[in-house]
Write a structure and sequence with these properties.
The protein has 22 helices and six strands. The chain has 685 residues and is mainly alpha-helical. A four-stranded mixed β-sheet has the order 1-2-4-3, sandwiched between helices. A two-stranded antiparallel ribbon has the order 5-6. Strand 3 and strand 4 form a beta hairpin. The longest helix is centred in the N-terminal third of the chain and has 49 residues.
Length: 685
C-alpha cells in the first residue's frame, strides 16, 4: 500500500512540477529543470515530514500512552487492592524488612490479589510509581511456609533492584503500539493486495515479510522477559542464601521443553543453572547478537528512503550514511558489550576471551536478514528474464554480504583486543564503564562509515555498482577514492590509536570494587599483563622512514645527474617516477609493520599498524620536502625550476601524497601485521 501510494503520488507530483515549470519558463529549458527540481524537492520534504510525524511520532506517542496506562489496567483487570498493616501487621513488617534488605531507594506499593490461589507475585509500574502484587496463595504461605514467601517476594523486589520494570513495560508498550499502528493497518492493506490486487506476487512478498517481522517482534519480547526473570533469580538467590527456598521452588517446577523459547518465562533448568553459573549472564549469546543485527537493519531501507525525501536531491548519495549514523550506536553498543563482558569474565578466570569473533558474525548475518525482511525489499528491483541473468547479481550480493560478515568478525576481535588493554586502566566499576563508553565512540564512527558505504553498494545492486565502476574508469580508481579519502584516514588511525592509547592510563594492579552482584563484594584485583611498547613502534617507523627517504634521495639525485633534462621533465616519466616513489614508501611501511608485529609480544599487530602509520607520515613529509627543496637547490630539481624557494611543506601536496603513502600503506599493512603477529605468537609458544 505504501509503495503504491508513494509511487503514484510521486509521479503525480512530478507531472505537476513539470507542467508548472513549462508555464513558468516556456522558452528556457535550463530554468525549467531548475524550477522542476525545486518543486519536486519541496514536495518530497513535505512528504517525508508527514511520514516522520504520521509513523514514527505516532508509534512513540501510542507506546508512551500504553506504557503509562499499563499499571492502571493491571490493577483494574486483576482487581488489586492496597495491602497495608491493617490487613496483616506481621506480613507488612516482613515486607518492610525485605525492602530494607534489597536496598531500594523507595519501597513499592504492595497490592493484594486475594482471590488468586497461585503462589506468585508481579512487579510492575511506571516512572515514579512501583507496585508489587501479592497473590492470595503467596500471602497464605507466610504463616505456613515463610521461607517460600520470602523467596518469592525477594524475586519480585529483585526486579525493582535491577531497574528492569520501566525497560520491560516500555518494551511491551512499543510492541503493542507496533501492532496497533503498523501491523494491523498493514494486514488490512495486504488483504486487498493479496486477494484483490493486480500483483499477487508482490502482495505475497509483503505478506510473508510482515509475518516474519511480527514473529521477530514476538520472539524479541519473549527473550527480553525471560532474561528479566533470570537476572532477578540470580539477585534474589544472593539475598535468599544457599539455605533459601528459591532453589527448592524452581527445582519442583515443571521442566521446560523444546518450545520454551516461545514462552515469557524461562525453562526452570536454565534458571537453576544460572544460580551455579552466574557468569552466564555476562556473556552475550550468538542469538542475542543475531537478533540485534536484525533490529539494526529492519528499518534501514525505509530510513534510507525517508532521508532521500528530507534531503535535497544533490545530497541523496549521503542517505545511507544518515541511516547508518542512527543505527551505528546500537550496533557498536552490542558489539562492545559482548566484547567487554567476554574479556571481563576471562580475566576473572585467568583465561583468554572466547567467542568474540562469532558475535561479529552473528551481527552481520542478522543485518543481512534484516535487510531481506524489510518491507521495502518486497518492491521489485529488476525483473530478470532468465536464471543466468539473476545469477550474477545474486552472486554479487552473496560476496558483498560475506564481506560484511568477515569485516564485522575482525572488528569484533579488534574491540575485544582493545577491551583487554583498557580493562587495565580501570580502578573501579565506574571507571570501567567510562572505558566501555569510550570504546564505543571509535567503534560507532567506524561502523557508521563502513556500514553506510557497504549499504550504499548493497542498495545499488550489481547493475548500479557495475555502472559506477564503469563510469569511474575501473575498480582501481573506485578503491583509490575510498581508501585514499580522509574518512579512511581516521578509520586507519583508530585501528591502532584505540588500543594503544590505554597505556597512558595503565596501572600495575587493577582494583575494581562493586563490579559483581554480591552484596558487599571484596575488591576484584587483577595483575596487569605485559605492557605495550608504543615507543618501540615509533622508533621502528622513524627508522624505516629515514631509510626510505635516504633511498629516495639517492634515486632523485641519480635521476638528476644521469638523465637528460628532456627525460626527467617529461610528464610520462614524472608520472612513473611518482608512482615508483609511492610504491617504495609503501614497501618500507610494510617492512615497518612486519618488524614491529614480530618484535612486540603483546598486540603486535597494533604496534605494526602504528609503525606503518608513523613511517607513512614521516615519508610523506620527507618526500614533499625533497620536492620543494628542488625549488631551492637545483641539484634536487627534476623540473628545471631550481633557485626559487617556495613553501617547503605544501598542505595540498601533503594531502595528496598522504592519501597514497599513509592510507594505502596502512591498509596494505593490515594483513601483514595480523599474520606476522599471529605467526610470531605461535613460534614463541
Amino acid at each position: 500500500m505504501q509503495y503504491d501510494i508513494l509511487t503514484s503520488s510521486w509521479w503525480k507530483a512530478t507531472s505537476n512540477c513539470i507542467a508548472k515549470s513549462q508555464l513558468a519558463h516556456p522558452d528556457d529549458l535550463t530554468l525549467q529543470l531548475q524550477f522542476e527540481k525545486r518543486c519536486r524537492d519541496a514536495y518530497e520534504l513535505i512528504q517525508g515530514g508527514w511520514i516522520l510525524l504520521g509513523v514514527v511520532f505516532l508509534l512513540l506517542f501510542v507506546a508512551v500512552i500504553i506504557y503509562w496506562l499499563i499499571p492502571s489496567w493491571l490493577i483494574w483487570r486483576r482487581r488489586l487492592s492496597p495491602f497495608t498493616a491493617e490487613d496483616d501487621p506481621q506480613i507488612m513488617s516482613s515486607l518492610n524488612e525485605l525492602c530494607r534488605e534489597s536496598a531500594l531507594a523507595r519501597p513499592p506499593v504492595f497490592l493484594s490479589d486475594p482471590f488468586n490461589p497461585t503462589v506468585g507475585g508481579l512487579a510492575f509500574g511506571r516512572l515514579g510509581r512501583r507496585y508489587v502484587a501479592l497473590n492470595g496463595g503467596l500471602l497464605a504461605q507466610f504463616h505456613s511456609n515463610p521461607a517460600r514467601f520470602h523467596a518469592v517476594v525477594r524475586h519480585e523486589l529483585a526486579h525493582l533492584r535491577n531497574n528492569d520494570v520501566d525497560k520491560t513495560y516500555f518494551a511491551v508498550a512499543v510492541s503493542l503500539a507496533f501492532v496497533l499502528v503498523a501491523l494491523i493497518p498493514l494486514g488490512v492493506s495486504l488483504i486487498d493486495d493479496v486477494f484483490f490486487g493486480t500483483d499477487f506476487i508482490f502482495g505475497l512478498n509483503l505478506a510473508w515479510r510482515a509475518i516474519g517481522i511480527a514473529g521477530y517482534v514476538y520472539l524479541a519480547l519473549a527473550a527480553l522477559l525471560r532474561s528479566r526473570e533470570i537476572h532477578a533469580d540470580v539477585r534474589a538467590s544472593i539475598w535468599d542464601g544457599e539455605a533459601g527456598a528459591l532453589r527448592e521452588i524452581l527445582s519442583k517446577s515443571v521442566g521446560g521443553n523444546r518450545l520454551s523459547f516461545l514462552g515469557f518465562h524461562p525453562d526452570p533448568r536454565h534458571r537453576l543453572r544460572s544460580f551455579d553459573e552466574p557468569q552466564r549472564l555476562f556473556r552475550l549469546s550468538f542469538w542475542d547478537a543475531f537478533a540485534a543485527g536484525i533490529a539494526s537493519t529492519l528499518a534501514f531501507p525505509d530510513l534510507n528512503a525517508l532521508f532521500g525525501l528530507l534531503l535535497d536531491s544533490q545530497y541523496e548519495i549521503l542517505t545511507p550514511y544518515g541511516a547508518s549514523i542512527l543505527f551505528a550506536p546500537m550496533m557498536a553498543g552490542v558489539m562492545a558489550l559482548g566484547a567487554w563482558r567476554s574479556v571481563y569474565m576471562a580475566r576473572i578466570h585467568g583465561t583468554k576471551p572466547q567467542g568474540t569473533g562469532r558475535l561479529g558474525v552473528a551481527l552481520g548475518l542478522g543485518m543481512i536478514l534484516g535487510l531481506w525482511l524489510a518491507l521495502r525489499s518486497a518492491v521489485p528491483y529488476i525483473d530478470y528474464g532468465s536464471f543466468w541473468e539473476w545469477l550474477v547479481p545474486s552472486l554479487f550480493l552473496f560476496l558483498w554480504g560475506s564481506l560484511l560478515v568477515v569485516g564485522l568478525f575482525f572488528l569484533s576481535k579488534w574491540t575485544a583486543a582493545g577491551a583487554v588493554i583498557w580493562l587495565e586502566a580501570a580502578r573501579s566499576a565506574k571507571s570501567m564503564r567510562s572505558a566501555y563508553v569510550f570504546s564505543i565512540l571509535p567503534l560507532t564512527a567506524i561502523m557508521a562509515l563502513c556500514v553506510g558505504f557497504w549499504y550504499f553498494f548493497w542498495f545499488q545492486r550489481y547493475e548500479g555498482v557495475y555502472t559506477i565502476i564503469r563510469l569511474s574508469g575501473g575498480i582501481v580508481p573506485v578503491m583509490d577514492r575510498v581508501i585514499g579519502s580522509s574518512c579512511a584516514f581516521w578509520v586507519f588511525l583508530s585501528l591502532w590509536a584505540f588500543p594503544l592509547s590505554a597505556r597512558f592510563f595503565r596501572r600495575n594492579e587493577i582494583v575494581i570494587e562493586n563490579a559483581r552482584l554480591e552484596k558487599d563484594p571484596p575488591p576484584l584485583r587483577l595483575k596487569s599483563l605485559e605492557p605495550t611498547r608504543a615507543g618501540l613502534a615509533i622508533l621502528i617507523g622513524v627508522v624505516s622512514a629515514i631509510l626510505a627517504l635516504a633511498l629516495m634521495t639517492v634515486i632523485r639525485l641519480g635521476a638528476r645527474f644521469t638523465l637528460a633534462e628532456a627525460a626527467y621533465t617529461d610528464m610520462a616519466w614524472k608520472d612513473g617516477y611518482l608512482k615508483s616513489q609511492i610504491a617504495l614508501a609503501i614497501l618500507f611501511q610494510l617492512g615497518a609493520a612486519l618488524a614491529a608485529s614480530i618484535w612486540v609480544k603483546r598486540l603486535g599487530w597494533a604496534h605494526g599498524l602504528f609503525a606503518a602509520f608513523v613511517a607513512g607520515g614521516v615519508i610523506t613529509l620527507g618526500f614533499v620536502g625533497l620536492v620543494e627543496l628542488g625549488d631551492c637547490w637545483s641539484i634536487f630539481s627534476l623540473g628545471g625550476v631550481g633557485g626559487v624557494c617556495a613553501n617547503v611543506f605544501d598542505p595540498i601536496l601533503i594531502g595528496f601524497l598522504g592519501g597514497y603513502m599513509v592510507n594505502w600503506g596502512t591498509f596494505l599493512s593490515i594483513p601483514v601485521a595480523v599474520i606476522a603477529s599471529k605467526v610470531a605468537s605461535w613460534i614463541r609458544r
